[in-house]
Amino acid sequence: MSTGEAEVGRQAWLRTVAADVARLDRSSSAERAADILRRSITEGALPPGAQLSEVELTEVLEVSRNTLREAFRLLTHEGLLVYKLHRGVFVPELDENDVVDLYRLRRVLEVDVIRGLIDRDPELPADRLEPLQDDVEAAEAAARADRWPAVGTANMRFHQHLIGLADSARMDAMTGRLLAELRLLFHVIAAPRELHEPYIARNRGLFELLEARKYDQAAADLHQYLIDSEQGILGAFRTR
Amino acid sequence: MSTGEAEVGRQAWLRTVAADVARLDRSSSAERAADILRRSITEGALPPGAQLSEVELTEVLEVSRNTLREAFRLLTHEGLLVYKLHRGVFVPELDENDVVDLYRLRRVLEVDVIRGLIDRDPELPADRLEPLQDDVEAAEAAARADRWPAVGTANMRFHQHLIGLADSARMDAMTGRLLAELRLLFHVIAAPRELHEPYIARNRGLFELLEARKYDQAAADLHQYLIDSEQGILGAFRTR
DNA sequence: AGAGTAGAGATTGTTCAACAATCCTGCAAG
DNA sequence: CTTGCAGGATTGTTGAACAATCTCTACTCT
Fold it and tell me: What tens digit of pLDDT does each residue of B78-100 get?
């Protein structure tokens, strides 16, 4: 028995180390530059519609033009930048059609993940829900501190971790893209509190339903949740 | 009235022209190089596991190393190549887990597209189904000529056009990726006829159900279709 | 013989400078 | 008000160079 447990512990340790190594390995100059730009975009320092000048950014980021262009490509395929041939790269300006498109995909993927849990409930260890709990509590703490952008970040992570329950690398990647694009939309909305506040409690409710293994109920709630969220963003869009 | 119709005609014309312009604009050296590599990979000239040497390909494709690397980045984010830092780019070797992952997403997306048609049936012009009919007939013709890889291509296009009915740019992009990865799998399977033949008739059946607006039935059929296809590939995988 | 190691050679990562191709701006002409 | 045309600025692409890392071979030591 003890060797079995030790083996399990060792496996878990190997996974975390492998993740760390991958994180270090990842550090090519292009990806570091992309990290910085990604933060600037998702935090709103680079507003939608802004053009990113090559010469300007090579000086700020201290990388060559070629490396910077590799960073641009990375972000382009995350949906955070768009290339216009011979004109440069821009932060995309999403419109109401994009909101509808993004939410359609979110609904399909996230609801399917939860429905998928019904079949494989037994093999799902209880601690798989821990990241979700952490995100819920982080959002609640940030709300108490009046830090609404942080609330938005925690809510995003909640949904990313929710998708993570499916153990699908491709769903994780797609969701990363979708949520990144969604953040683009947040910055054209003036009121971050009204935007994020209602979903703190709903995330907790969702988490508790999952904990209680009431997957059908959770799926139905999440479906309505995403419809409401979509309507909220569309409404803010029209009145801006 | 007549001005209204002329306006509609003008709009349609503008759309087709815009599409043509986009197609011409696409011609950067990096994307042309990516096109050639994409064909080589999806047609199997570059088998899974193969490494792509930079110096070698700069000579063949007649582009500089920097431009070639941009092409690599493009294909990396389509899932057709993987980067290993300081070791180069490789054609990925997918395994059975990837098959399960890919088919899970295909099922979710494609079935949802058809279910989505139920609500918006009235606004769906009949000619939207034409591309699907063309693909079905192309597959049948290729089968008669014993050109099984061409059958596979036509089948792929059928599913891409199926997703296209949703008018979702992001679903189109995701599907493009998923199907490209799927082609990677086809090349490790020896018997292309056994792989593709069963689905010629099933695609036609699906098309006829859509034409008859029996969307519920079509969704159910497609679901089972994709399960069977997944099992076929998994079976071929295990016996190879 | 086998395990470990040092170093040479090859490949990738990144930079730089230059030139070609394209786009944008402003202005003049019709 | 539109059209056509500089010219200046920006992007697209190239080639060479050097640094960083990996791979493979040959060697040493036990």
Answer: 899 999 989 999 999 999 999 99
